[in-house]
Amino acid sequence: MNEAATPKLPRRLGYTTLFLLIITAVGLLVAGPAYRMGLLCFVVGILASVLNLRKGTQGMVAISVLATLVGLGLTLNNLNWFNKARGVPPIHDISTDTVNPPKFVAVVPLRADAPNPVEYAGEETAAKQMAGYPELKTVRLDADPGTVFKASVETAKDLGWKMVAEAADEGRIEATDTTSYFGFKDDVVIRIRKDAMGTAVDVRSKSRVGLGDVGANADRIQAFLAGLEAKL
């Protein structure tokens, strides 16, 4: 069947699917997942695939099927993020010490335009954190502060964080981590102090934007502490 004889609806759906696929790809490049575009691309792709197969417009079948698969992938990915968000508290400031959380110093100017203020989020956030992440507490290590400080810097660099401050005399390390998928910037401050057991380590991770973090800050702290303990 030549293109002139191609039924209009299947052909238009095919082109619509192609358009949605392009918009979805652009959305992925610019701002993470294309959210509802993935589901729309999936639904229109299925419809276009069926009609093109039935009407004989073979030229649009490959595009329709590709859009369907892309849309399905995006939809499943978005559902995964949605389910993960439902399972964690909607907070964006996580600290191993919620009574006296480590304070940001060098990072403060970098957050000047950030929607989330640099100050600790408060008692309500602390209560939600205790309910959602009861395992996050001050870590005490049988090592001197100098050794722990050096290992902490190495661990932060191993995790790919951008170092902002390494104040050994204060036992303070500050860094910024950029999430790989969305490109969000979250800031971290590590406090290292001598105590009766050797050294106490506290870590605080705070998002610059967003009411919740889908568990990213807690995961980051846990990854750091695991890496630090492996070095000591």
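Next protein, fold it too.
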Amino acid sequence: MMKSGGVALFPLALVAFLAALTFWLERAIQSEAGNRDGKGRHDPDFIVDNFALRRFDVNGTLQYSAVAPKMVHFADDDSTVIQVPKFTFYRMPMMYLGAQEAWMDKDGKEVRLTGDVRGVRAANGDTPEAIFTSAIITIFPDDERARSNTRTTFIEEHSNVAGDSFEADNKQKTFALAGRVRGIFYRDKAH
């Protein structure tokens, strides 16, 4: 009696299938183990409660400080998210900035404030206090510059001006609104 060739190949096919399954499982386990370090995901690698930062210039003078109830750092892009940050810039006149959240790049050179952003330039001599508000403002803390491409309102004493975007330079003491700018200016009655 003659045996069929298909029956003789069955054990060989079963061994090939098991080898392929073993190879696939090994690859699946290796790729899963490779992602466990968090570098491929946007997961926090550390969290700081009651965050406080002070930045000094090259002469040792306090340039600015930041405080927040929580700071979260991400390893994949080396960025930082700060919840309810409050920044203080010490150059005269002093400037205060706050928001619901801030995103900071890996070097701390660029900080994007979002959610109810409010800035206050303190009164100084003949210059009255000024308040500006926006939905999003990007600041460059070391350069003491800020800009926004969202509607920004600037209030100084009784005057109120709003524009589609703005740029500010605290060192040069300039604040420029652009786009559709509208405002109300009140003259001093003494002049």
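About the second fold: The longest strand covers residues 44-56.
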